[in-house]
Amino acid sequence: MAYQPRVPNFNDDGNNDSERVRLYNPYQDLKVPVQTLYKLPTSPEFLFQEESRAQRRSWGENITYYTGIGYLAGATTGAAKGLVDGVKASEPGDTLKLKTNRILNASGHTGRQFGNRAGVIGLIYAGMESAMVAARDTDDVINSVVAGLGTGALYKAAAGPRSAAVAGAIGGVVVGLAVTGKQALKRYVPI
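and the corresponding structure tokens:
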């Protein structure tokens, strides 16, 4: 409920007319229309001019973003898979408490495994992409695809050169498709 102070109004005979109430308006003395008072800028505001020239996240923000998104996506996917595995593993004689415990254990275990793997992949990818941007001094699709290729190869390097080559090719193709899809989405879907 809005604050409505009572302002005494006196009639011509000097009596207080308490029937009349004036509403408080905090904008009455401003010469700016109220509609334009709260228009926020659509472009980001920067403290330093150097920040406004770079139209991308810094390497630290990049690593934090990709690692966090990777872990969250992996943990969610793993928890869903663990839920299905926990339901399948329940036996006919199990009590509700035992079934619930089995489902929670399977979801937590599989969610942590998938989350850690996806988080490490995000960490490696962000580091490689930031290194490519720093080395080439440009930010384009080639950096992303090469970073995806290198991430896949490095992640599976311990399994042997053939596995590393296959994982690198998969990583490069997946990132290439993701970047192409993002550009097509920006172009054809008005947001």
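(Above: one complete record from the training split.) Residues 96-136 form the longest helix (41 residues).
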